[in-house]
Amino acid sequence: MAYLRGRQCKNGGFCFYRSEYLEEPSLHDTYHAVAALTGLATAVPRADALAEFVAGVNASGLAAVYFQASTLALLRLRSRVRAAPILRIRSRTLPAPPRSDAISASGWLESALRLVRLVRRFGDVAELREIARHVRGLWREGGCGTTPNLWDTYLGLRILALLGEPPDGPPTRRFVDALQVPSIGFALTPDSRRGNLEVIYAGVMCCALLDLPVRYAADVLAFVLACQDARGGRAHCPVIRSPTDRRPGLPSLPSTVWLIGLISLVDDSGSELLYPLLPLYLSSVLMAGPRALGASRASPRRPRAR
User: Fold this and answer.
1) Residue 127 resides in a domain
2) DSSP E strands: which ranges in 119-178?
3) 10-45: per-residue pLDDT in tens?
4) Of the chain's two ends, which shows fewer C-beta atoms within 10 Å, N or C?
């Protein structure tokens, strides 16, 4: 939490590389910081100044409008969300999904997920049913993507879940389960053995959405811990100098909030190994207070997304 608070700028916004001499707050970093603090059941510092900064940005484009509206919603200031930008976004259609010979489908899937989340929060997703058809068109060999991989599969599953569409059943379960590997927890593709926090997050989320157990829960936790630096921030991946020497790289706000997302999914991840470690992890690593510990124990079990 000290790392998160240390990223806040004078005008209330957040910047992940903020220093004494440089402050460049952005909607992107501000959203991830607020999401992380909210996930830790911690009050957002200087909330009034933060709200003024967020609401005062002239957001245009899907990503900016999504981060602005979502941050104000997290601050429980939905009344300050401007309807015009959202209506403009809703009136646009996404570009055509990538063709099978495209290098990657991740960018299109990330934009589609933001659009679905935005419209679901502030409108009716019925008008977005066509997106589900496009997403299913990217499925092959049990996974999603022009080259099937774990990150695109998570994005596809999350979009389908938000639209109330069932996943691709047993083939997807087999694809995700085959990407569970020892030492790092999850691999991006069947041929890859290099992990990062994004892949770990995608793997745990896929397991939650598909009701799969996390088979290498201890390895997942060890990898996540290796990503944390001395200031409490979370790097994208550790620098692995040897099997026993893993050191964190440059911390970032998205990586930190992915970690909080993993913690929030522990009770739904299907792993009985992670849940008993949650209070110890919150108190000794994240330095969370009694409120966050109480929330982790007392929150009712959420139904799993199907």
Assistant:
1) no
2) 139-140, 143-144
3) 999 998 888 888 889 999 989 988 988 887 788 899
4) C
